[in-house]
Design brief:
Length: 182
Protein backbone atom coordinates (compact mmCIF):
# COMPACT_ATOMS: atom_id res chain seq x y z
CA UNK A 1 0.00 0.00 0.00
CA UNK A 2 2.86 2.39 0.74
CA UNK A 3 4.28 1.89 -2.77
CA UNK A 4 0.81 2.49 -4.25
CA UNK A 5 0.51 5.76 -2.32
CA UNK A 6 3.97 6.92 -3.41
CA UNK A 7 3.09 6.25 -7.05
CA UNK A 8 -0.27 8.01 -6.63
CA UNK A 9 1.47 11.10 -5.18
CA UNK A 10 4.29 11.15 -7.73
CA UNK A 11 4.05 8.80 -10.69
CA UNK A 12 7.59 9.73 -11.83
CA UNK A 13 9.25 8.65 -8.59
CA UNK A 14 11.96 6.00 -8.80
CA UNK A 15 12.23 3.77 -5.80
CA UNK A 16 13.81 0.65 -4.38
CA UNK A 17 12.30 -1.83 -1.98
CA UNK A 18 13.45 -4.84 -0.09
CA UNK A 19 11.21 -7.53 1.36
CA UNK A 20 12.32 -10.57 3.29
CA UNK A 21 9.14 -12.63 2.74
CA UNK A 22 9.17 -14.37 -0.67
CA UNK A 23 5.37 -14.28 -0.81
CA UNK A 24 5.11 -10.55 -0.06
CA UNK A 25 8.03 -9.82 -2.37
CA UNK A 26 6.31 -11.57 -5.30
CA UNK A 27 2.94 -9.89 -4.72
CA UNK A 28 4.50 -6.44 -4.26
CA UNK A 29 6.60 -6.78 -7.42
CA UNK A 30 3.51 -7.85 -9.37
CA UNK A 31 1.44 -4.94 -8.02
CA UNK A 32 4.10 -2.32 -8.74
CA UNK A 33 4.65 -3.58 -12.29
CA UNK A 34 0.89 -3.42 -12.85
CA UNK A 35 0.31 0.14 -11.57
CA UNK A 36 3.61 1.88 -12.28
CA UNK A 37 5.48 2.98 -15.33
CA UNK A 38 8.26 4.04 -12.97
CA UNK A 39 11.70 2.63 -12.69
CA UNK A 40 12.00 0.53 -9.55
CA UNK A 41 14.41 -2.00 -8.16
CA UNK A 42 13.62 -4.72 -5.68
CA UNK A 43 15.49 -7.14 -3.48
CA UNK A 44 14.18 -10.30 -1.85
CA UNK A 45 16.10 -10.56 1.39
CA UNK A 46 17.11 -8.63 4.48
CA UNK A 47 17.86 -4.93 4.59
CA UNK A 48 21.43 -5.69 5.58
CA UNK A 49 21.95 -7.96 2.55
CA UNK A 50 20.33 -5.43 0.18
CA UNK A 51 22.99 -2.86 1.04
CA UNK A 52 25.59 -5.10 -0.66
CA UNK A 53 23.79 -4.46 -3.97
CA UNK A 54 25.09 -1.22 -5.53
CA UNK A 55 21.53 -0.28 -6.61
CA UNK A 56 20.59 -0.05 -2.94
CA UNK A 57 22.68 2.95 -2.05
CA UNK A 58 22.65 6.74 -1.94
CA UNK A 59 18.98 7.22 -1.02
CA UNK A 60 17.21 10.47 -0.14
CA UNK A 61 14.80 8.69 2.20
CA UNK A 62 14.07 5.24 3.62
CA UNK A 63 10.98 3.89 5.36
CA UNK A 64 10.59 1.07 7.85
CA UNK A 65 6.90 0.33 8.18
CA UNK A 66 6.13 -1.98 11.10
CA UNK A 67 9.50 -3.63 10.50
CA UNK A 68 11.98 -2.68 13.20
CA UNK A 69 10.02 -4.45 15.96
CA UNK A 70 10.48 -7.73 14.07
CA UNK A 71 14.19 -7.44 13.28
CA UNK A 72 16.73 -9.69 14.97
CA UNK A 73 19.22 -6.81 15.34
CA UNK A 74 17.56 -3.36 15.09
CA UNK A 75 20.85 -1.50 15.59
CA UNK A 76 22.49 -3.34 12.67
CA UNK A 77 19.45 -2.57 10.49
CA UNK A 78 19.60 1.14 11.37
CA UNK A 79 23.37 1.30 10.82
CA UNK A 80 22.95 -0.39 7.41
CA UNK A 81 20.31 2.17 6.49
CA UNK A 82 22.53 5.00 7.75
CA UNK A 83 25.25 3.84 5.36
CA UNK A 84 22.83 3.75 2.42
CA UNK A 85 21.47 7.28 2.87
CA UNK A 86 22.77 10.48 1.32
CA UNK A 87 24.06 13.22 3.62
CA UNK A 88 21.03 14.65 5.49
CA UNK A 89 18.92 11.68 4.31
CA UNK A 90 15.69 10.87 6.12
CA UNK A 91 14.24 7.76 7.70
CA UNK A 92 10.54 7.28 8.41
CA UNK A 93 9.73 4.66 11.03
CA UNK A 94 6.24 3.49 11.85
CA UNK A 95 5.63 1.10 14.75
CA UNK A 96 2.58 -0.09 16.62
CA UNK A 97 4.31 -2.25 19.21
CA UNK A 98 5.35 0.12 21.93
CA UNK A 99 5.48 0.48 25.70
CA UNK A 100 4.26 3.26 27.98
CA UNK A 101 1.33 3.99 25.64
CA UNK A 102 -1.99 2.20 26.23
CA UNK A 103 -3.16 -0.20 23.52
CA UNK A 104 -5.92 1.62 21.59
CA UNK A 105 -7.91 -1.42 20.48
CA UNK A 106 -9.65 -4.06 22.61
CA UNK A 107 -6.97 -5.96 24.57
CA UNK A 108 -8.18 -9.18 22.93
CA UNK A 109 -6.67 -7.91 19.66
CA UNK A 110 -3.26 -7.71 21.32
CA UNK A 111 -3.25 -11.47 21.89
CA UNK A 112 -5.40 -12.79 19.03
CA UNK A 113 -6.49 -11.22 15.77
CA UNK A 114 -7.72 -12.49 12.44
CA UNK A 115 -4.27 -11.79 10.96
CA UNK A 116 -2.05 -13.45 13.55
CA UNK A 117 -2.57 -15.99 16.28
CA UNK A 118 -0.47 -14.21 18.88
CA UNK A 119 1.50 -11.03 19.32
CA UNK A 120 5.01 -12.14 18.48
CA UNK A 121 7.13 -9.03 17.95
CA UNK A 122 10.75 -9.40 18.97
CA UNK A 123 10.91 -5.83 20.30
CA UNK A 124 8.63 -3.30 21.96
CA UNK A 125 9.71 0.33 21.99
CA UNK A 126 8.96 3.38 24.02
CA UNK A 127 9.46 6.71 22.28
CA UNK A 128 12.70 7.10 24.25
CA UNK A 129 14.06 3.63 23.49
CA UNK A 130 13.42 4.12 19.76
CA UNK A 131 14.98 7.58 19.95
CA UNK A 132 18.06 6.02 21.63
CA UNK A 133 18.36 3.37 18.89
CA UNK A 134 18.27 6.13 16.28
CA UNK A 135 20.76 8.29 18.20
CA UNK A 136 23.39 5.55 18.56
CA UNK A 137 22.91 4.66 14.87
CA UNK A 138 23.59 8.23 13.67
CA UNK A 139 20.09 9.73 13.41
CA UNK A 140 18.22 12.51 15.20
CA UNK A 141 14.42 12.71 15.37
CA UNK A 142 13.05 15.79 13.59
CA UNK A 143 9.32 15.02 13.70
CA UNK A 144 6.89 12.69 15.41
CA UNK A 145 3.13 12.19 15.46
CA UNK A 146 0.88 12.33 18.54
CA UNK A 147 1.63 8.67 19.31
CA UNK A 148 0.21 8.86 22.83
CA UNK A 149 -3.33 9.12 21.48
CA UNK A 150 -2.87 7.49 18.04
CA UNK A 151 -2.65 3.82 17.13
CA UNK A 152 0.86 4.04 15.76
CA UNK A 153 4.13 5.76 16.55
CA UNK A 154 5.45 7.52 13.42
CA UNK A 155 8.89 9.14 13.54
CA UNK A 156 10.95 11.01 10.95
CA UNK A 157 14.67 11.23 11.70
CA UNK A 158 17.55 12.82 9.86
CA UNK A 159 20.97 11.30 9.19
CA UNK A 160 23.69 13.02 11.19
CA UNK A 161 27.43 13.05 10.65
CA UNK A 162 28.54 10.36 13.13
CA UNK A 163 32.00 11.91 13.69
CA UNK A 164 30.59 15.01 15.39
CA UNK A 165 27.49 13.33 16.81
CA UNK A 166 27.08 13.03 20.56
CA UNK A 167 24.02 10.84 21.16
CA UNK A 168 21.21 12.45 23.14
CA UNK A 169 20.16 9.48 25.29
CA UNK A 170 16.76 9.60 27.03
CA UNK A 171 15.94 7.23 29.87
CA UNK A 172 12.47 5.94 30.70
CA UNK A 173 11.53 5.75 34.36
CA UNK A 174 11.86 2.02 35.03
CA UNK A 175 9.08 2.16 37.64
CA UNK A 176 6.64 3.47 35.01
CA UNK A 177 7.73 0.72 32.59
CA UNK A 178 7.19 -1.98 35.24
CA UNK A 179 3.79 -0.52 36.13
CA UNK A 180 2.83 -0.38 32.46
CA UNK A 181 3.83 -4.02 31.88
CA UNK A 182 1.89 -5.15 34.94
Amino acid sequence: NFAKELIRINNKISFYFTEHSKKLFASTNKLIKKISKNKFFSHNGTIESSIKNSKFNNFDAVSLLWTLCNCVDPINVLKSIHGSLKKDGLILISESSRILVPFKKPIYNFFVSKYETKNSHAWYFSYNSLSNLLEISGFRIIDCNRFYDENDLVIVAKKINKKNHKPNIKIDNYKKVLKYLK
